[in-house]
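Escalation from tier 1.

The customer reports that the assembly of two entities below gives different structure tokens on two consecutive runs. Tier 1 could not reproduce it. I'm attaching the input and our single run for tier 2 to review.
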Amino acid sequence: MRRTLLAFALALVFSSGFLLLVTRSHPASLEIRTQPWQMPAGKLFHGHAIGQHFVCPTNSLTEIQVALVRQPGDSGRGLRLTLKSEGPAGEVLRTSEVTPAADTNGPAFIAFPFTEVADMADKPLYFELEGLQRDQLSDWSPWISWRGITGAGKPWGDRYVASETVRDEVLAIQDDWTGVALAVDGLNVPAGRCELIVRESGQEETLRIGTVTHASPIAAGYAVFTFDPIERSRWRDYELEFVLPEGARVVESDRGLSALSLHGPAPEATVEQGKLGGLTRAGRIVPHRDLIFRTYGTPDAELVLGTLLERAGTWRIALVWLLSWIAGGLALRSFLVEREELPLDEFPH
Amino acid sequence: MDVRPQETRAGSSRFRWLLVATFLHGLVYLCILPPWMGEDEPWHFENLTHVSNGYWAKSERVYEMEDQREIPLTQIQALRRFEGLDHEQANEVQQEILGSMRTNHFWRRVDWAGRGDRVRNFDEVAWGFSTSQQPPLYYFVTAPIAALTSSLSIEARLFAVRGLSLLLYLATVVLVVRIARQIFGSDGETFSLLAGFLAAWFPMHARMAAVVNNDVLARFLVTLVLYLAVRVTARTASRKHAIALGIACLLAIATKTTAMSALAIAVLGVVLAPREPPVKSRKWLLIPAGLLVCVLAVIFWQSMNNPAVPYSVQELAKRFDYALSGRGFVEVRDSILGSFNWESRPQPGWVRFVFGFGAISALVGAIVAWKRATPGVERRLLLLCALTILVQFSLILLRGVGKGRYLMPAIGAIAVLVVAGLVRVLPERRRELAGVSLVLLWVAYDAMFLWAGLVTNQYLGWGD
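Tier 1 run:
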């Protein structure tokens, strides 16, 4: 009997202990979860901060983590995140300056902690990221996430090729083709003609002209050329002609031009998605995409438990806890129980 | 009068309680795993829904490039698979499943699936993936459940089909105990129960009690084949067992390509049986017979365009490269220990380390146990278990896709060798302590997997 009690007591400790640990966990309050990370936005230029609108999901906000990678270069390592209310022109609420360790090059989430901002639940907020050194380029590049579907593409290559006109061919594998992300370096959008001409394979006629919808320079990052969606693009061949300003270089590998086809979302879903207001470059909103980031508030066990019960259902969590306790107890009892404690009917009469 | 030894009678009671515990344990995962969070579930459910709607014969229709512009690839594959199915019906089934995936937050849970839930077909969830080329048995077995519950909501139908997985999980654990009993003998009941427990409480195995996937049937059938093969080797098999072994092999081949190991296990079971003149003289016949079944199985799978069958020498060479590169090993290791939300969130590194240490210890212990075993049946049975794992692992590597669940058909062999290598190999006075410690660690790990892993990732780690 004693060992049976011990078995169930141990099982109770395990199932309740780990359930308690779940409530003590500290999940992100808002998080862009996407795999793999595919599109670095390019190095951070002074005066061209990359920012993100979002609505704070919880009262407390104490930290923002941004997915970053350090591109080759010798610029300063320091980064500054500025948290503002509303948007780029809003009041500065907090700033956080971070210099990642010398051996941290990413891709990784870099944390920007700050003193708590309270009473923020459901309030529109905005943060922007730039290099600490105001007079130079930062080698850090934030990752961006496309809200729609990523189609066919070739990964980031191993060489830069200087050219003002680049051609490629694409077989679209999904419908609603609406853009191409091209890996570039030294692209200064306002410096000259910068567009993508899309033609159906073998046709002279221009089908779409894609443009980069911001004026910030791009170094070692993706330039996203977007155009009006081609609704029925699936399994059709297209010819691409990129016309780039002088000085721009594209990234290539043996497999060809490093570019990704982007599909959807529907045109009406351009700016807001849930609690996300969209990405900005130099204060201007860039549709269809967000920075890859996550936010944290003060640990709050009650909030975590509330979220768990709301999403899973109280009855489900209670039932699973009970079942796991009984199952664990019975299993342990099978191995802890002593011969003399077995029920009488188990012995020969 | 019951003449069973006391240990066996006491053991049978413990066995019954262990089965009750196993059933409840499977029920835990059945209750907690959200809809569509079993790997490949939407595709398998799509297939079995078509079968439950009366489409089962293979279609001979040929599709051209032009058709692919009009119809999503996954739907074309369904049309090519099921005679009589039309595009509208194929689309309707996908839309119903996609609707349920949206309601159940699939895109917030699965990190690689993209961020928009406004997808219009399965191609937009995972391009180029389909289960329409899978062997048919699992769908014929599950279709009646879907047909009987057709008036219920899609989530209820999914739950009902998952119920079969729970029963197959329970049946697999029963078989594991029976396999162990053949190996450890009547005085080793605790070891047998321990093997069953380890199989039952291995979290990714228990999680298969809650997943609609042909892997669950493949695992059960291969475990059944191993049990029958063990009886053949132990010379406790009757003619009925031999016939059952043949049938189970054919059913396994009709379930999944990764269950092809069944054939090798059956042959090994016969080959490893101690020599006796009448059997010895016919053993050589097994080689051509096995090869013939292999060829027929490959032709059968090829006729269904199953991607497991390499379509060129280059493809085969690529798979050998994959097998030798170690990537397959790493992928199997990570996914068998538990990678949450459709394998998008792996376990922390220390779990891999601890299990790696445990696996190496078990391997070394099993070799010692094999050397210490008296030459004869026990040694042969341990060898059969080791070869079963080797065959299953080789199949995975040659398949070119390292999924931990493809190793589950060898769960019985793994559990037996772990018990032999970590507990039974020890001096008698230390066995109890080792066994109880293993059980405690296993229960604790499962609780951690359940709450800190599965529940946390499924219900708290939602993407925005």
